[in-house]
């Protein structure tokens, strides 16, 4: 079903991208009403198909699949026939590939002047790194992700989600929606150059700018706060304490001060003092949280107005009452799998998308 009110409900997008950023962007627009036709290489299809059905399904449920060899004249002719009736094309090749295939923006615009071409690449269509290979970790590294100190005992560690890929897919989806609406108003399409590195740089640059001058003493950086961190509990689990505002420190001291009087040290009463004595404050909190299990701390903070959260395990996450109440995660009982609803609630309603995973070269549904 499609939302009756959505301006994307009669939009058609040709998706010739693979893996995460492009397919995720088109999946978001599909959830908002667009039709997505996925063009795949005959025989192998999207590379994510080779990583397992669940991996491919994650970003391609509800799409149609067409198998076309874009290196052949017949495949290109069929592709351009799709473009004539489409609003946008999303591709994720390295810069120059679409031109070599004879399917660059000029070629697409020749058959459909209102077409929007969205090119999602690692480093953009131009620049010193444009031809470089890369994946999520590479873009994070070159965007200064690890240059921003955030913990008293900081370390470089791999993020648990593909942050830069998701940043790029969000910007791609937003830009596509705007460009498609603009093209429908004035009949003129355009080429969107989405660089994954640019996308994550837009998230990291301000923090990295503030970190300049602290490379030799990262713990002194103002963004490092001893009471805003992850702490280990007695049973080897972890909790998150997110204190920024001073009122929450006061609430923490009120809740735990009788048992742990060191928290009431006057030196720590205000943010400047805690920043001045970071190692001592952090060490004190480490000692305190190691005295009880995560379950015990969850009970302790249940009625306390402090930004406290248990670090949930994978099973705990899907049993969490708030996750269940919000309904973003939808369980597909027939497949023992999940799919995600669009993570914004529209008051006019947003129906669930088709759950069918398209076979290679065959329409879904």
Describe the protein's architecture and organization.
The chain is α/β, with parallel strands linked by helices and 365 residues long. The protein has 2 domains: 12-205 and 334-340, Crotonobetainyl-coa:carnitine coa-transferase, domain 1 (Rossmann fold, 3-Layer(aba) Sandwich), CATH 3.40.50.10540; 238-310, no CATH class. Helix content is 38%, strand content 14%. The protein has helices spanning 21-31, 53-60, 73-84, 97-100, 105-111, 136-142, 163-186, 196-211, 246-256, 271-276, 278-289, 294-301, 314-319, 321-326, and strands at residues 12-15, 35-40, 64-67, 88-91, 116-121, 191-195, 228-232, 238-242, 308-310, 329-332, 337-340. Strands 3-2-1-4-5-6 form a 6-stranded parallel sheet, sandwiched between helices. The chain has a 3-stranded antiparallel sheet with strand order 7-8-9, with helices on one face. The chain has a two-stranded antiparallel sheet with strand order 10-11. Strand 2 (35-40), helix 2 (53-60) and strand 3 form a beta-alpha-beta unit. The longest helix has 24 residues, at 163-186. It is elongated.
